[in-house]
Amino acid sequence: MSIADHFDRAPDLGFVRSYDARAARRQFQVSVALIVILMSAAFTLGLLIRSAPPAGPAHPAPSVHDSRFA
Asked: Is residue 60 helix, strand or coil?
């Protein structure tokens, strides 16, 4: 038995088949708000990364005069 044999022709309850102007305007406003939030987060992270001090080397290179033995 395959899914094609038992396919339900009724529309799913979670999906909207038609849109009105108010729903389209609301969706556009939500999309614009999300874009503004993402842009402000990227700008803030860019400022934080730029103002952070540069990281030094993880392990300083041994000097020529260093004579420690294990």
From this structure: coil
Measured in whole angstroms, the distance separating CA 6 from the mean position of its chain's CA atoms is: 39
Q: What is the DSSP letter of 38?
A: H
Q: CB within 8 A of 23, min separation 6: which ones?
A: 16
**φ and ψ at 47, to 5 degrees?**
-65, -40
- Residue spans of the domains in the chain: they are 23-47
**Is this structure's pTM higher than 0.90?**
no
Which of 45 and 8 is assigned the larger pLDDT? 45
